[in-house]
From TrEMBL:
<dbReference type="InterPro" id="IPR037523">
    <property type="entry name" value="VOC_core"/>
</dbReference>
<feature type="domain" description="VOC">
    <location>
        <begin position="125"/>
        <end position="239"/>
    </location>
</feature>
<dbReference type="Pfam" id="PF18029">
    <property type="entry name" value="Glyoxalase_6"/>
</dbReference>
<protein>
    <recommendedName>
        <fullName>VOC domain-containing protein</fullName>
    </recommendedName>
</protein>
<dbReference type="InterPro" id="IPR029068">
    <property type="entry name" value="Glyas_Bleomycin-R_OHBP_Dase"/>
</dbReference>
<dbReference type="InterPro" id="IPR041581">
    <property type="entry name" value="Glyoxalase_6"/>
</dbReference>
Length: 240
C-alpha cells in the first residue's frame, strides 16, 4: 500500500495565529501537532490536515503551492473575499491582469491563495478547497500520482492534475516555466505510511520512484525530509 497525504505544511513565524486565520476561513478545528506545530483537522471535502510549523525565516518569493478556493456564485465569491480580509488577509499582486476573474489574496504571513469565480467546471464537486495548485513539471505530476496512488485527472500541454479516488481537492502542476523557490519551500507535503506498512519499505519505494534524500535538520523529530524529482521538499512521518 502507498503512503497517504497526511497534511499540507506551511512554515509560519506564528503558527497559532496562522492556524486561526485558516480555521476561520475554512471552518476547521485546531489541534496541537505532537511533532511540533499546529494542525487543522480535515473537513468532509478534504482528506488531509493543514499543518503550521514554526520557522522564523522570512518569506522572500511567491510560494510554489497555493490553495484555490471555490465559489458557488459571485455573491459567494464576494463573501469569501470579505471574510478573508476581515480575518487578516490582503489583496496580492502576482502579475495577474484585469481579465482574470479570480481574486488573488495573501494570508497574514504572505502565503498566496485564490478565490475562484463560480462556474469553474474543472473544480466542480471538489469542495471549498478545490485545488492545491503547484508550480511543477509533468514528470513530477506522474511521480505524485504513483507516490500517492491518485489517478491522473488531467494530462495535457505539460500540465497535470491528480485526485484521490475518493474525490475532494485536486492537486495540479502547471508545467514550465518553473518558478524559483528562493531557498527552502515554505509549503510542503507531509506523508504518512499506510497502516501495517514497513517504514523503510516505504522510504525505498519513494526513492525508487525518483525521490531523493534531503538533510535539512529543520523539520524536527518524527519525520524524514525528501525531495520530489523537481526538488520540492516533502516529509515522510516515521510514525503517527
Amino acid at each position: 500500500m502507498t503512503a497517504h497525504l497526511f497534511a499540507i505544511t506551511f512554515d509560519a513565524r506564528e503558527p497559532m495565529r496562522l492556524a486561526q486565520f485558516w480555521s476561520g476561513l475554512l471552518g476547521r478545528g485546531i489541534v496541537d501537532d505532537p511533532h511540533d506545530g499546529v494542525l487543522l483537522l480535515p473537513a468532509t471535502d478534504n482528506a488531509f490536515h493543514i499543518r503550521f510549523a514554526p520557522n522564523q525565516q522570512p518569506k522572500v518569493v511567491q510560494n510554489r503551492m497555493h490553495f484555490d478556493l471555490t465559489s458557488s456564485s459571485l455573491e459567494d465569491q464576494r463573501q469569501t473575499v470579505a471574510r478573508a480580509l476581515e480575518l487578516g488577509a490582503r489583496h496580492a499582486d502576482i502579475g495577474q491582469g484585469p481579465e482574470i476573474d479570480h481574486v488573488v489574496l495573501a494570508d497574514p504571513e504572505g502565503n498566496e491563495f485564490d478565490v475562484i469565480a463560480p462556474g469553474n467546471n474543472f473544480l466542480a464537486g471538489c469542495g471549498f478547497v478545490g485545488a492545491l495548485a503547484c508550480d511543477g513539471s509533468q514528470a513530477v505530476g506522474y511521480f505524485w500520482s504513483r507516490a500517492l496512488g491518485w489517478p491522473l485527472v488531467w494530462d495535457q500541454d505539460e500540465e497535470t492534475a491528480i485526485q484521490s479516488p475518493d474525490g475532494g481537492t485536486k492537486i495540479t502542476w502547471g508545467g514550465p516555466p518553473h518558478a524559483p523557490n528562493g531557498g527552502r519551500d515554505r509549503v510542503r507535503f507531509d506523508l504518512a505510511p499506510a497502516v501495517d506498512t514497513d517504514w523503510q519499505v516505504e522510504v525505498d519505494r519513494l526513492l525508487s520512484l525518483g525521490a531523493t534524500r534531503v538533510d535539512t535538520g529543520q523539520d524536527g523529530p518524527g519525520r524524514l525530509v525528501l525531495a520530489d524529482p523537481d526538488g520540492q521538499e516533502f516529509s515522510l512521518l516515521t510514525h503517527r
